[in-house]
Amino acid sequence: PGEVSRAAFVGRVWLRILKCPCPPSSAALELSVNDHAADFTLSTELGPPISLSCLVHNNSQAEELLWYRGDGQVGLQDGNKVNISNICISPVNESDNGVTFSCRLARDRSVQVSVILDVQFPPQLSGEESLLVEEGKDVTLTCNSKSNPQGQTTWYKDNHSLTLQKDHHELYQTSEFFRLSIRKAQKSDNGTYSCVVESPLGNGARDFHLIVEDKKPVFPTEAIIAAAVVVAITIFFGVAARKDKIFKVW
Question: Which segments constitute the Ig-like domain (predicted)?
Fold first, then answer.
């Protein structure tokens, strides 16, 4: 009887397992974004909006989709989440360049397709236009430059290509700015400096007006204060010594 009971129990357990609905595996599911089933780069330009459409393939049930911009989740309306989901980036600007947009399966976020935006735009320059420096002091002209693809930068002085002098001029460049440092500025450094950036999409320029003023004389502050104190004390004692005469006059 004990063996029969155990056999019946095992049979009931297997029956329950067979009747239990198992969730479909996500291994066979695929996503595509704008007909791309793998990660890709999308080249675009400033201004016009772009649309990204994510679609579920090989699904046997309704699947919820999620969109991410970098690490942040994008808010979607209820009717834009199941089996197909669309997002629109409008207007496209410089901050979208290099950003990754990812469409992911909600119940298995390892199933995803990502697109990196390659936003191309001509040089955009900025920086302090006028600089005043005392003769003998150091000064730095910073040309902030954004462009994609990155442009070639050149410095000019008074409309002529700048001749760099060793130990007097120093250049430093990154993908976002171009610096010209002038050590111990001289009167001959006065003038208009131009930062010119050339790229396949166009050129950009920014002028910087540098004024080197006369070196200010150095006053011995401590000596002046000490002299003022001595004068004040002398006057005080002089008045004190002659107070009797002063009172008699009055």
Answer: 24-114, 123-213
